[in-house]
Specification:
An 8-stranded mixed β-sheet has the order 6-5-7-3-1-4-9-10. The protein starts with 7 loop residues before the first helix and ends in an 11-residue tail after the last helix. With 368 residues, the protein is α+β, with helices and mostly antiparallel strands. It folds into 2 domains: 8-277, no CATH class; 285-357, no CATH class. It is 39% helix and 12% strand. The longest helix is centred in the first third of the chain and has 32 residues, at 8-39. The chain is globular and about 55 Å long. α3 (74-81) runs parallel beside α9. It has helices spanning 8-39, 45-55, 74-81, 87-90, 104-112, 182-193, 206-214, 242-245, 259-271, 297-308, 317-329, 340-357; strands at 57-62, 83-84, 129-134, 149-153, 161-165, 175-177, 232-236, 240-241, 246-251, 274-277.
Length: 368
């Protein structure tokens, strides 16, 4: 299938980001050169940029069992529609629900893309979809905070992606495209040389990170990156077709022998891409940390396990998904916890705890 024809708004958004990146490129080159000179590796910045843009894969994390506005699960919608849609079309998010005119997402997209998507006549379906650049091949994807499973996209999609260092809701100033990536790379090296960022690279200095990026053998392809708050966000412009744009779907093992898991397997078979499984995350219900996301999360975990789990079953992605579906289908069951929006946010935070502290599924052969 040929690459999609971008709309005027989508093309304008890409041009705007490229122009900003070109403006910032000279300063970024100086930062990259200084970091590499201090690393003692002898690696040239051209090699590093080529490795990042050549080996990195875009991943779009999602929860396959979450319910859309029309009552379908995400997996059912992917199965029926054959495309991956943005929050402006689906009305759900594993971040903030602000995709409407004048909402927070609309405001930051206006700033990030120079108002391209606020032009008269631009449709919600034209908005970009959000994912991340998976630099070290982590099997939980670039942004696991947004979902237990992910689509890994073909390399061709990189040409119509824009990038920010950090989540776009924070208003990052370091932006780039695959052809002008230096501002984002400079920000990554700055962060690595400072406190270190999660990205799956914690504990690496500039030299170690650079060598890992250049060598596939040194990339931690069978480990979870657990990148909750630090990642290179990607915004993909133009339609995301499963048949044309997806290389693999990578699924959490808790969805084996479930409707969501079977649907994802069927989608992969129909469209001819790989079905892979990552190690998953499991955590005993009494192992939920009260400090990481706050004191409301341990009692919620206990309730989720008591009402939707089985004896001896650990917390895992599909178990949290059962509670999330209940919150939509029977909100009165949760009324004692206050507004639905609060419980929804707490379920997201319970997932964050699971990603950060969880161990690989007991049936997994992968390291943690």
């Amino acid at each position: 299938m040929p690459e999609p024809t971008l709309t005027a708004a989508q093309s304008a958004a890409l041009r705007h980001v490229r122009d900003v990146a070109l403006r910032d490129r000279p300063a970024a080159l100086a930062v990259i050169a200084a970091h590499l000179a201090g690393s003692g590796t002898g690696i040239r910045y051209e090699e590093l940029v080529a490795a990042v843009t050549g080996h990195g894969r875009l991943t779009l994390n999602f929860h396959p069992d979450r319910l859309l506005r029309d009552g379908r699960t995400v997996a059912e919608a992917l199965d029926a529609d054959g495309v991956y849609r943005s929050q402006f079309s689906t009305g759900i998010s594993n971040g903030g629900l602000t995709a409407f005119p004048g909402g927070d997402r609309d405001v930051w997209e206006k700033a990030m893309f120079g108002g391209a998507y606020q032009r008269p006549g631009v449709l919600p379906a034209e908005r970009p979809t959000y994912g991340g650049l998976n630099l070290l091949d982590h099997l939980d994807g670039a942004c696991p905070r947004f979902g237990s499973c992910h689509l890994r996209l073909r390399s061709e999609v990189l040409t119509r992606a824009t990038f920010t260092f950090g989540d776009s809701h924070l208003g990052p100033t370091e932006v780039g495209t695959v052809t002008v990536f230096e501002p984002v790379l400079a920000a990554l090296l700055d962060a690595t040389a400072g406190t270190g960022v999660s990205l799956g690279v914690s504990g690496m200095d500039t030299g170690a990170l650079s060598r890992a990026l250049l060598s596939r053998r040194e990339r931690a392809s069978e480990r979870a990156g657990r990148s909750l708050d630090d990642y290179i966000e990607a915004q993909v412009h133009g339609e995301l077709s499963l048949a044309r744009d997806v290389e693999a779907v990578v699924v959490d093992p808790s969805f084996r022998d479930t409707d969501a898991g079977r649907r994802l397997a069927a989608i992969a078979g129909r469209h001819g891409f790989a079905l892979d499984w990552h190690a998953g995350f499991e955590l005993p219900v009494d192992g939920v940390d009260a400090d990481f996301r706050g004191p409301d999360i341990p009692p919620l975990a206990a309730r989720v396990h008591a009402e939707f789990g089985r004896p001896g079953e650990p917390l895992h992605a599909a178990l949290i998904g059962r509670a999330a579906a209940s919150l939509v289908r029977e909100p009165e069951r949760w009324a004692d916890r206050g507004p639905t929006e609060v419980t929804w946010q707490h379920l997201k935070q319970l997932w964050h705890v699971l990603v950060w502290f969880g161990r690989p599924a007991r049936s997994s052969r992968f390291p943690g």
